[in-house]
Design the sequence.
């Protein structure tokens, strides 16, 4: 593989870096800061990126995109992450938009994709349920056809950004008699519809990043069905690969890694700590190579789902290794959170240590990713 950037890619990276330095006042070497709350982007920042065509650079031009190679979109995402930008984990663009492009009709693409490309709307994921977890096929939320509407009843949990989203990308059961995978549909549900209730859930950071969302006889027009009725499984799985190589990336932890290395040097840490940091630095490089390979496979139209699963497993475990080591290096100071003036880097290491606990669960558990690798890459039998 040739990872050397083209002249156009180098020019794009330089432009993005200049904008981010001016907008955020940060560089790749700036100290880390606590992660922005939740998974939804900062709307004003998103609008600025959208105005430059940087939110949807690889999307088709007719849907508000730039029509450029997917690698250029990842350059933008990488630089945002390296500069600590708040839009690094935009669920709407990274997960939902590719599924709309893949499974939606032309009306839906024209309606939603240009707004997403401009940063004007956000969409939360209506997937996980109290008794379903990562198993979409076990979901119980129902959407029953009634004339020109579906009537939705049920409950979703751990719904990131539900409190600030305009829409919910909802997975619901439209046929209870079919085999589990066959009776699922996906639709775009307006979050301001009567019968939608959002209740905040507190996470390990004592922050409300997640929500419980209940649907009580919520009416959704049939025109909001994405793809065919009872064929939602295809829509749900059509873009899982792009999710796994976009959301959980090692780049967002670069500044934390650098500052821990500087701290270890200043404090004279040797032996085990130095060895562990060296190993984690190697893991960072491997994570980047795995990601670039997945991007190339995606660009070439090759089935990259197993590679994306490998990226997700490796990157999330890398992040946990990094912050576990960071907490050990900081000792008692690692117990201090943001807001305490004694907390190193405003508690950035402690803050993210508590956050990355969920990384090996969100977006499909590590066990699920290993099963994908076993079946699609290694060709091992099921069971």
Sequence:
């Amino acid at each position: 593989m040739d990872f050397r950037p083209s002249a156009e890619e180098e020019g794009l990276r330089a432009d993005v870096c200049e904008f981010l330095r001016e907008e955020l006042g940060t560089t790749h070497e700036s100290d880390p800061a606590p992660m922005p709350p939740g998974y939804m982007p900062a709307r004003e920042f998103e609008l600025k990126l959208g105005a430059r065509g940087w939110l949807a650079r690889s999307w088709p031009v007719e849907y508000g995109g730039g029509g450029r190679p997917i690698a250029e979109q990842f350059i933008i995402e990488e630089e945002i992450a390296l500069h600590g930008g708040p839009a690094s984990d935009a669920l709407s663009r990274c997960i939902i938009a590719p599924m709309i492009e893949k499974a939606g009709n032309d009306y839906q693409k024209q309606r939603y994709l240009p707004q997403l490309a401009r940063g004007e709307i956000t969409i939360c994921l209506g997937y996980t349920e109290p008794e379903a977890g990562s198993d979409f096929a076990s979901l119980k939320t129902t959407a029953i056809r009634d004339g020109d509407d579906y009537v939705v009843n049920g409950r979703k949990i751990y719904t990131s950004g539900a409190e600030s989203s305009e829409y919910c990308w909802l997975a619901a059961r439209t046929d209870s008699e079919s085999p589990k995978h066959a009776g699922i549909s996906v639709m775009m549900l307006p979050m301001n519809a009567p019968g939608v209730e959002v209740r905040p859930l507190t996470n390990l950071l004592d922050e409300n990043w997640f929500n419980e969302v209940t649907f009580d006889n919520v009416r959704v027009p049939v025109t909001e069905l994405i793809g065919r009725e009872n064929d939602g499984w295809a829509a749900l799985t059509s873009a899982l690969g792009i999710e796994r190589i976009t959301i959980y990336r090692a780049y967002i932890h670069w500044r934390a890694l650098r500052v821990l290395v500087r701290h270890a040097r200043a404090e004279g840490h040797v032996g085990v700590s130095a060895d562990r940091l060296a190993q984690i630095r190697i893991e960072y490089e491997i994570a980047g190579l795995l990601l670039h390979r997945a991007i190339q496979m995606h660009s070439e139209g090759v089935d990259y789902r197993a590679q994306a699963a490998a990226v997700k497993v490796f990157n999330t475990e890398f992040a946990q290794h990094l912050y576990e080591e960071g907490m050990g290096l900081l000792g008692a100071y690692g117990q201090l959170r943001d807001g305490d003036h004694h907390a190193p880097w405003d508690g950035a290491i402690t803050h993210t240590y508590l956050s990355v606990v969920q990384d090996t669960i969100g977006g499909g558990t590590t066990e699920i990713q290993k099963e994908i690798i076993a079946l699609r890459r290694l060709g091992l039998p099921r069971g």
User: Anything to note?
Assistant: The chain has three domains: 7-121, 124-236, 239-377. The domain at 124-236 is CATH 2.40.110.10 (Butyryl-CoA Dehydrogenase, subunit A; domain 2). The chain has a mean pLDDT of 89.
